[in-house]
Amino acid sequence: MIYFDAGATTLQKPPTVAAAAARAISSCASPGRGGYPAAMRAADALFACRQLAGQMFDTEAEHVVFTMNATHALNLAIKSLVGPGDRVVISGFEHNAFRRPLHHIGAEICVAGQTLFDPEDTLRCFREALKPGTKAVVCTHVSNVFGYILPLEQIAALCRERSVPLIVDASQSAGVLPVRLRALGAAFVCMPGHKSLYGPQGTGLLLCGAQTKTLLEGGSGSDSRLDDMPTYLPDRLEAGTHNVCGICGLMEGLRFVRSRQPGSILRHEIALRTHLQTILRAVPSVCVYSGEPQAGTCSFTVDGTDCEQLAQALYARGIAVRAGLHCAPLAHASAGTLQSGTVRVSFSAFNTMEETDRFARALRAVLQKR
């Protein structure tokens, strides 16, 4: 199978990721729950992962909180800052991991910037939307549907200038683009472990630059006499037993990204995406969503063809892509594809030009049979 759905999960991992997770199953117990070797190995492994993540993403190890995924991290961040009726500014390309918590809270949501691949328009709209009384800005770094790289550094500077807390969704950027908590001055940065950090599913990171509220309460292995959770990070936000095996795997994913270097991985993915888009533009009835700045994700539609059926036909030929709304209806509304959805091709460090060419041949073959 040719796997082109790294935007959901990087299926191909460095071999060290699975090996580390497997070792942890038989060698690590729960951190903070004992002084015996198996518990101490777990504690050391988690601290080492925090340290590496802190170095890579510009924060202190203690401000790195382990989560189940980016959605978990985003809920922690949003519910630490936003209450019912609070005015929140978001981009026009957000995932449901942002939109639904804000809706559930009852926040007043202001959408800023809905023009695809137009950073100047995005920034202008944020500047206009950041009115007095804005409680927070919530912004994705890269659109999970179209690969559009939003002008995050400029949006962050605008938030700092107007003293508005910023929550960053780095789900599609951590591991390929610079993501620096302190440099951005962000309140929180959220990321999954299982995408471009090449870790296992069930892992994520919340980088904390602001005061937090708990989402879960329970055992932390520390300050057990307290009725409430500890006041300090990371213990305050890590109730219950950690996913030690997953975190050990994530550590190896982080090491892989650091050794390959995010910029090098991004250039590889962009080369594949650019090559594919050149081919797709030559295929009649195909509409390709492309522009600059764009990461290694490409969405397209085919006139008169249901995107879900097209994805199934491609899978029958051994190619895995994602089709539909990609949990981001707001992004599709912005791009005009809310009714049709798109077929999305998203690359990883393990994809090749030869796979891209095979995909193009398979697509032509499918379309010829319509």
Structure overview:
The chain has 370 residues and is of the alpha/beta class. It has 2 domains: 2-9 and 261-368, Alpha-Beta Complex (Aspartate Aminotransferase, domain 1), CATH 3.90.1150; 60-239, Type I PLP-dependent aspartate aminotransferase-like (Major domain) (Aspartate Aminotransferase, domain 2). Helix content is 41%, strand content 15%. The strands form 3 sheets. A 7-stranded mixed β-sheet has the order 2-8-7-6-5-3-4, sandwiched between helices. Strand 5 (134-140), helix 6 and strand 6 form a beta-alpha-beta unit. The longest helix has 21 residues, at 37-57. The mean pLDDT is 97.
Which features does this protein show?
single chain; 370 residues; alpha/beta; Aspartate Aminotransferase, domain 1; Aspartate Aminotransferase, domain 2; 2 domains; 7-stranded mixed sheet; 4-stranded antiparallel sheet; 13 strands; 41% helix; 15% strand; globular
List the SSEs and their pairings:
Layout: E1 2-3, H1 15-27, H2 37-57, E2 64-67, H3 70-81, E3 87-91, H4 96-105, E4 108-112, H5 119-129, E5 134-140, H6 152-161, E6 166-169, H7 181-184, E7 188-192, E8 204-208, H8 244-260, H9 262-281, E9 286-289, E10 297-302, H10 307-315, E11 319-320, E12 322-324, H11 329-335, E13 342-346, H12 353-368
Parallel strand pairs: 1-11, 3-4, 3-5, 5-6, 6-7
Antiparallel strand pairs: 2-8, 7-8, 9-10, 10-13, 12-13
